[in-house]
């Protein structure tokens, strides 16, 4: 059994466990109290703040502990927007931010603000020039992740921070995925992170607001954590979070090389082993432990079940069959294949043997899913002037499977129209065309759903 | 050494520690994931929710875990107000609520809503009739604590809930101080609580919203915890919180009797031992473990230091010398003496010997503070037509000490004017008069600060 979903949550680091247990005895009291138990708690909290600030590369009085990374993002975005409300109400985010940032942006829009989403390239990275173009005189805040949580692509934070700094706009960096590996470079203004991504306990986030950044905390007043994180401080967890951040940093350089080699092995082997697969994310500027690929003719969730049965815990940005019925916004923004998506994110200390075993198991698992899906209820093929595949009512990856089945019947130069109403088809049919060298002509409204037109070129 | 501030935070219950350690191994993964680690985490979370719901007396799907009691209150108040926004924007709270409720009310007012504060009697309790009078056609929500955190007075929640129910207004009960002792009675609509008050770890609160109560969560969307508590669930802490709630409930009935006897001993002995002391809070309808008293001519913070040096950790609602320079809003609302205030809140298992030793140490500690303060810089006594004591610029308890020093110089039937600009004097001079049988005539504006007029009657 191997857990390969560290980007979601990492198991507790041994140092975190040790620190947690020690501080359960010393850190349960109210650090605002003057008696000995309170003073001990305050000392632990202060020491944890110093340690975390050192790891981030900021002053201790710029850093507060929140109850989660999500909460840090929500508080950071709302406070920075409110602090610069006089300047304007324009917010910039990248199209591939974590949902916590996008949800904060939604609230901002519902409240009358405006948001610009900066597009990413096919490898998932933004360009600093795109941020420069998005900046306006009324821009109150820009947000950019340090690295993407789904595909591992590292963002040009220092360049974007410099562009923002020139415009006098603060940049909030969501460093959830990268803080374990090192401080965020560049002249950013706010930073958020989440301890359970680096082997700390759940229930601890970080919010850093640089001195001089205008910040107006929203919501009910609370004296704790400089008024930026309401509620009683969870000191044992905070102590454990700081201790584990320091511990993972001590091994980061060495472990990064090792994990990078393992994810590179997956990147290289997966296309050879599976066929009809697209490895996504930037091949060079990427996090050491994350590798993501998408498999044609595969339903991501079924594949996760197959892999779970084989003892591997991975996640998927392809949620075609989940309740929401929408593919990952990240894969969508990148314009890459979303069907049969698998994210492997290796925890610190991931065993080489487990990775090799994963590569042994994977082809069988993918083949099993493809076999299961290979005989769906046949779609009606209506021959008109062009071939029509009716996949209305069918969920991803069925429309693509149907397309693949009939493309051989289309004369070279001829077209086929795929009727589909599953949102994922809009992404996956062009992606299939790109992968198979066929021409994607475009989409047009159809009586039922949307018609995606493909021309056979070979 | 004895810790007598359980109303602020209780040390971790042994059962909580055990549950926390066990679930650190099983509960760190994302409960929304489908692989085995995620399923295990989900099972732990579901079981904890069932256990907590049983202790509260609600359905499991009515209860979510938040990151603190404060957060539960903020979310509960905001969500309930938004859910009934069409009805109106009037909020009712008692004058002695926890600061988290009052701060939520402040935000509501800043946002254009209105709030009615229901007054309390001298023993700290509201009357159900007062809530009935405060209810208006546009009342969206009423809030009432189950018991007061500073003086231990138990509130008539069932009666107030019934009054609110008749008016169709939901009642939110802040049960932070009482949930360890038993479920909250009556037909309430929302309930909040905090695990570290019952020996659970920090970082866990409860928010219960009864089915049928209109509730619209505010802030950025998040799928976790029914959309009512953003951020990754802290499952080990949640498991520990639920386990310790169950454990303290099992011993509650027996322990309540024991602690009630100990606090009764303090209530009875303190006036005999100290003199010039007022024991506050309801003598009968009160929590088992809390007893609060105020000492004339004593500065609360100095007394806490004396007691801390003697090995006792207690807290004070009298913050005359703290940064805020205002006496506790609770003592103020009750109209009782606030100077030299001490709250003793016994943790479960508090040793009888420690309580007796506290009663031995207390008289010496109070005497030491009174001695220190007995020789302040003499105030200028200006004889005009009436005696004037100029205590402008002097902080509590100096104005009262100066008053006590000169009252003997006033002829019976004559008056003395105390000039003071410390806010606490407004509360403490009338309280001193009531305790010493002198007549408090009233206050009037003076050239410097306020003049408090006292007539010597004996």
Automatic annotation (TrEMBL), chains A, B:
It comes from the Bacteria. This is Aminotransferase. Coiled coil: none annotated. One of its GO terms (molecular function) is transaminase activity. Keywords: Aminotransferase, Iron, Iron-sulfur, Metal-binding, Pyridoxal phosphate, Transferase. Pfam families: Aminotran_5, TusA. It catalyses: (sulfur carrier)-H + L-cysteine = (sulfur carrier)-SH + L-alanine. Its cofactor is pyridoxal 5'-phosphate. InterPro entries: Aminotrans_V_dom (IPR000192), Cysteine_dSase (IPR016454), PyrdxlP-dep_Trfase (IPR015424), PyrdxlP-dep_Trfase_major (IPR015421), PyrdxlP-dep_Trfase_small (IPR015422), TusA-like (IPR001455), TusA-like_sf (IPR036868). Residues 389-413 form the UPF0033 domain. Belongs to the class-V pyridoxal-phosphate-dependent aminotransferase family. NifS/IscS subfamily. The lineage of its organism: Bacteria, Bacillati, Actinomycetota, Actinomycetes, Kitasatosporales. CDD domains: SirA_YedF_YeeD. SUPFAM superfamilies: PLP-dependent transferases, SirA-like.
């Amino acid at each position: 059994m191997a857990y390969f979903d560290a980007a979601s949550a990492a198991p507790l680091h041994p140092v975190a466990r040790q620190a947690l247990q020690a501080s359960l005895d010393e850190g349960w009291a109210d650090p605002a109290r003057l008696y000995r138990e309170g003073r001990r708690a305050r000392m632990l909290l202060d020491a944890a703040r110093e340690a975390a600030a050192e790891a981030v590369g900021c002053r201790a009085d710029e850093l507060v502990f929140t109850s989660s990374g999500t909460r840090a993002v929500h508080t950071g975005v709302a406070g920075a927007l409110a602090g610069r409300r006089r300047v304007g109400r324009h917010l910039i985010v990248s199209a591939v931010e974590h949902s916590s940032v996008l949800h904060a942006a939604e609230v901002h829009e519902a409240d009358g603000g405006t948001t610009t989403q900066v597009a990413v390239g096919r490898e998932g990275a933004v360009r600093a020039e795109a941020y420069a173009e998005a900046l306006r005189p009324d821009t109150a805040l820009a947000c950019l992740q340090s690295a993407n949580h789904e595909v591992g692509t590292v963002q040009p934070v220092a360049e974007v921070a410099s562009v923002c700094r020139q415009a006098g706009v603060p940049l909030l960096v969501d460093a959830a995925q990268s803080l374990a590996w090192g401080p965020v470079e560049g002249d950013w203004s706010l930073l958020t992170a989440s301890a359970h991504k680096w082997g700390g306990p759940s229930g601890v986030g970080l919010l850093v607001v640089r001195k001089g950044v205008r910040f107006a905390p929203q919501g009910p007043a609370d004296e704790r954590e400089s008024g930026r994180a309401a509620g009683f401080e969870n000191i044992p967890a905070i102590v454990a979070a700081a201790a584990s951040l320091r511990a993972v940093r001590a091994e980061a350089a060495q472990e990064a090389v090792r994990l990078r080699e393992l994810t590179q092995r997956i990147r290289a082997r997966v296309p050879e082993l599976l066929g009809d697969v697209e490895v996504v994310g930037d091949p060079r500027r990427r996090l050491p432990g994350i590798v993501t690929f998408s498999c044609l003719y595969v339903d991501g969730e079924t594949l996760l079940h197959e892999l779970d049965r084989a003892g591997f815990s991975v996640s998927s940005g392809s949620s075609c069959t989940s309740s929401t019925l929408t593919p990952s916004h990240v894969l969508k923004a990148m314009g890459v294949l979303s069907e049969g998506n698998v994210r492997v994110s290796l925890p610190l200390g991931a065993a080489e043997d487990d990775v090799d075993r994963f590569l042994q198991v994977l082809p069988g698992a993918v083949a099993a899913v493809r076999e299961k899906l290979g005989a769906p209820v046949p779609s009606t093929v209506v021959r008109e002037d062009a071939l029509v595949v009716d996949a209305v009512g069918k969920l991803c990856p069925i429309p693509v499977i149907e397309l693949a089945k009939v493309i051989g019947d289309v004369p070279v130069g001829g077209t086929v129209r795929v009727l589909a109403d599953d949102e994922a088809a809009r992404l996956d049919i062009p992606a299939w065309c790109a992968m198979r060298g066929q021409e994607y002509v475009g989409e047009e409204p159809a009586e039922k759903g949307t018609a995606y037109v493909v021309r056979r070129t070979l």
